[in-house]
Amino acid sequence: MQSFSYEKAQSVEQATGTTGKFIAGGTTLVDLMKLGVETPTQLVDVTALPLAQVETLPNGGLRIGAMVRNSDLAHHPAVGKDYAVLSEALLSGASPQLRNMATTGGNLLQRTRCPYFRDPSYSNCNKRNPGSGCAAIGGHNRMMAILGTSDACIATHPSDMCVALTALEATIQVEGPKGKRSIAIADFYKLPGTTPNVENALEPGELITYVDLPAPRKASKQVYLKLRDRASYEFALASAAVVAEVSGGHVRAVQIALGGVGTRPWRAHEAEAALTGKPATAAHFRAAAEDALKGAKPSSENGFKVELAKRCIVRAMTMASA
Amino acid sequence: MATQTTPPSQSNVIGRSVARIDGPLKTTGTAQYAADFHFPNMAHAVPVQSTIASGRIEKLDAAAAQSMPGVLLVLHHGNMDKLYRVVPNDFSATTSEARPPFEDRTIYYWGQYVAVVVAETLEQATAAAAAVKVEYSQTPAKLSTNLGDYAGKRPSVSQRGDAEKAFAAAPIKVDQTYVTPAETHNPIEMHATVAAWEGDSVTLYETSQGVVNHRYAMAQVLGIPRENVTVVTRFLGSGFGGKLFPWPHSALAAVASRRLQRPVKLSVNRTMMFSNVGHRPLCEQRFQLGATTDGKLLSLRQDYINHTSLIDDIDEGCGEATTYLYSVPSLTVTRALAQRNVGTPSPMRGPGAVPGLFAMESAMDELAVALNMDPVELRLRNDATKDESNGQPFSSRHLKECIETGAAKFGWKQRTPAVGSMRRDGRVLGWGMAAASWGAYRFPCAATVALEVDGRVTVRCATQDVGTGTYTIFAQVLQEKTGLPFERIGVHLGDTSMPEGPMSGGSWATASVLPAVSSAADSVVKTLLQVANSTAGSPFAGVDPAKLQLTAGRVHQAGEPAETGVPFEKLIAMARLSRISADGNTTAIFEDPKAKGLSLHSFGAQFVEVEWEPQIARLRVSRVVTVIDGGRIINPKAAANQIKGAVVMGVGMGLLEQTVYDPRTGQPINGNMADYLMATCPDTPEIDVTFLDYPDLAMGEYGARGIGEIGLAGVAPAIASAVYHATGVRVRTLPVRIEDLLQSRIREA
Ligand SMILES: Cc1cc2nc3c(=O)[nH]c(=O)nc-3n(C[C@H](O)[C@H](O)[C@H](O)COP(=O)(O)OP(=O)(O)OC[C@H]3O[C@@H](n4cnc5c(N)ncnc54)[C@H](O)[C@@H]3O)c2cc1C
Ligand code: SF4
């Protein structure tokens, strides 16, 4: 661990005016600093910023402040009522202690759990050390991604919350030295390609201020299903967030996102296309799941994730259309 | 069933559920664990670990580290004090790794300590440890987790009849290989040593399950007289066997402290726990069972092999329970070791028996399936009436009753044998069962009991409470003997300046301490009554001590109520004494004529229900019924807690736990509490524990055996059998994983 300065920002301008590394709940950052993976010299604590509210937007949507804690968000009445998928996703993640610390902004930027990324004694990690290779390929890879991987990186994006936000088509509001902008979550996360060190669309100094959710769609059913080895306190092996409108035995509209299998929160467009307008039957769900996983490229130990993810989609769709 | 009488007791506290007397200290954070010892001027040590598994240190550059703020000392092979090995096979002074730290430049396993940095603060030491530069030359590491290609010798462990011939001729056969992975002990309290020298004597504040052994071993390692070593372990946050014998960090702290002439603390962190302080080794076992068509065993052959380190030959002993559990005329057990570049394995809760029973009881379940016979019925048909490995009668064996009681409590009669045939609330149910066993032991113990002039009774013994209730057992005996409330009973353990007590391991602590403390208490009371008789001014002066007794802390005439008597402390004061004390001793069980020629074991039965959702391959253990024949239960509350904890550990063993080594570097790759999966609260099933409570009087006056390990035995095979019943997938390599469950042909519930 190396020395660093610490300051607590009192305003968004003060925060974005520095060159420091933002720290919110610290549950990702401090962990990685202790491991020697993150080595910031200047920490800017953003938890005092006035971004800790959940408000209704004029368009009927919801605006979530970046400092809202994961547990507060999960238990917020508006989230419970209209965005159950988000609440369920949050509560399936980490542990109560971690959720009490973790923030919305921090969760969006949590890093992969790839064990080789987390251990600097492996110099070969393209994400940590661009151009150095990838220790996970040929290593222990059971938890690794099967969708969106590249020859440079197969690390899974570990978040549950972001999977729900992807299905909800959230928009991320950021503010930086060059001003404010909005980024659709679909454009926020980057595929690893040849530059797995570039994980998202943020520019240097940009602060996540809010996450906006569109107005809830009437009659939509929402489900978050997380599959894993043990019953709690484990990242997903496969998860599915579903926001679906099912009526008259047919799927009218649906958004599906997958977790635990992708290098980023994975929007399953193919499955959505296969389902829209179709009868809500097990056979159609399965066919859609097959489509969703068509591009899967498993490693030596995680081939099971392909079938598991398919079953996750089928079960989540079954629940959403029940 | 033979009825056995229990010893007389004045308070019936033996066998009664009592809350642990050390509970409040723990819940209020005042219990001092090893790493809680802080001394003025204390320095902090942080080891540097090897990043390769096999090779040699070519160059170690500590210059940068040495010049960092607060750094006091960097120790390594080049400047280490001379350390010694302990005498091999001297069981009074055992270390875990035979090789003292930094003995040579060779790297035997990933994570091996190659240096230790000592600094004013933990942070400074941590930073400087990261700055020590080590250059290695690597040699190919033996890392294969496949032990099946072993071609070396397989020494015999046990042999009777002709297993090969009997198997060949048997009409029904099972021949399968079972694998249990490396598992890491993860007690919540990590290992630590605080070393403090005074002149040429050292006190080691330790996380030790055996302070006496630790003292003897460290005296040899440091090359100093044992009188010069004191080991203190007041409280332990468990150990599961990982803390039985000293690990290298203890010597590192001791040497650093001696060099600096300052107290030094070394805390092993969670990651190091996965490489440097032992593990249950990877085991592979081939089981061949031959049986008649009506389910009578004809032959049993077990060939096991476990991995061990390059520096130690640790035999896991998977044959532990195989040779006597069932009646079988022909039996062969062999063992083998496969050396790998891993840290030295160590006993982990139920060593040998636990992995051994996974294989054996899984094979029995497969035999039941092959016979189309109920697994309970198969066990009952093969119950043994004597220990067939040596012809000895059992001191007290009630396995049959364990199984029958368990079956009744579980509702086993309702079980339908066909795979996937049982359903509840949209889930498939699987029911499985297994038998369990663990040896019963008793080792020497000395204890001093004193009636103090301040009205308290105290006991001193250099054993330790691993967290299971040993303090309370001592207090129970003293209450039974003196009638004093717990508030007036002082139990002092975990310090080698006291009379020598046993290790907390092998489930023998309770059986070992009971006779010593009981006989010391009896002697002390006898002396007190003599003092009452002989002290001038005593109301009982001249009264025959045989006509006096001590009840509720008062000495009185036998036959009269206690209130007519005198508080014992008054008599002690009258006699102008500070205390009346006496020593008591326990002899080892193998020297006890009462136990001679008897086979001493605990038994148990595990019944498990799993709930299985085939659509999403989700399987959880929903219900466990455990019946234990563990001799007399001294404190049912603490005992049930032990068994429940063990069952939860069994859920972990069955479904979750596995130390994964990187196939190229040999590093334990999941070495943290998020990635090494153990059962969490939501994984915990409903657990129903029953103790048969038959005193085993061959063990001593109280008839207690031990219950620390048996609760884990049999859980994993019962789970695997339940998994088969639910899914049709027979998992022979633990843990049972989603990967396995996805193979099930059952897709709907
Ligand atoms: C043991 C463990 C288990 C876990 N299990 C799960 C799980 O099952 N599911 C799951 O989804 N998550 C899990 N997590 C991850 C957890 O959800 C994240 O650590 C947490 O959400 C991060 O939030 P934080 O506020 O603590 O972020 P921090 O650690 O404070 O920050 C994380 C990153 O975000 C940046 N940052 C923070 N706020 C902002 C902002 N407003 N604008 C720009 N950048 C910002 C920081 O600079 C840093 O790079 C687990 C974590 C741990 C340690
Ligand atoms: S998978 Fe990605 S994060 Fe992991 S080692 Fe490879 S490059 Fe690094």
CATH class of the domain at 221-321 in chain A: Alpha Beta
How many whole angstroms does the radius of gyration of chain B measure?
27 Å
| Morphology call of chain A | globular
Low-confidence stretches of chain B: 1-10
What is the second-level CATH architecture of the domain at 221-321 in chain A? 2-Layer Sandwich
**CATH homologous superfamily descriptor of the domain at 221-321 in chain A:** CO dehydrogenase flavoprotein, C-terminal domain
Total count of strands of chain B: 28
**Average of the residue pLDDT scores of chain A:** 97
Quick tags:
heterodimer, A: 322 residues, alpha+beta, Enolase-like, domain 1, 5-stranded antiparallel sheet, 4-stranded antiparallel sheet, 12 helices, 12 strands, 21% strand, globular, B: 749 residues, Aldehyde Oxidoreductase, domain 4, 7-stranded mixed sheet, 6-stranded mixed sheet, 28 strands, binds flavin-adenine dinucleotide, binds iron/sulfur cluster
Give structural notes.
The complex is a heterodimer of chains A (322) and B (749). Chain A is of the alpha+beta class. Among the domains of chain A are: 5-45; 221-321, Enolase-like, domain 1. Helices cover 27% and strands 21% of the residues of chain A. Chain A has helices at residues 12-16, 29-34, 70-74, 77-82, 84-92, 96-101, 104-108, 161-167, 185-188, 269-275, 282-292, 304-320, and strands spanning 5-8, 21-23, 42-45, 54-56, 62-65, 171-176, 179-184, 207-213, 220-227, 238-247, 250-259, 266-267. Chain A has a 5-stranded antiparallel beta sheet with strand order 4-5-8-6-7. A 4-stranded antiparallel beta sheet of chain A has the order 9-10-11-12. The longest helix of chain A has 17 residues, at 304-320. The radius of gyration of chain A is 19 Å and the shape is globular. Chain B has 749 residues and is of the alpha+beta class. In chain B, strands 3-5-1-12-9-10-11 form a 7-stranded mixed beta sheet, sandwiched between helices. In chain B, strands 7, 8, 13, 14, 15 and 16 form a 6-stranded mixed beta sheet that branches. In chain B, strands 17-18-26-27-28 form a 5-stranded mixed beta sheet, sandwiched between helices. In chain B, helix 8 (353-371) packs parallel to helix 15 (715-727). The longest helix of chain B is centred in the last third of the chain and has 26 residues, at 509-534. The A-B interface holds A 1-2, 36, 113, 115, 119, 121-122, 138-140, 225, 227, 229-235, 237, 304, 307-308, 311-312, 314-315, 318 and B 51, 123, 126-127, 130, 615-618, 620, 655-656, 660, 662-665, 667, 669-670, 674-675, 677, 679-683, 737-739, 742. The site of flavin-adenine dinucleotide has 31 residues of chain A, from strand 2, helix 2, helix 6, helix 7 and strand 8.
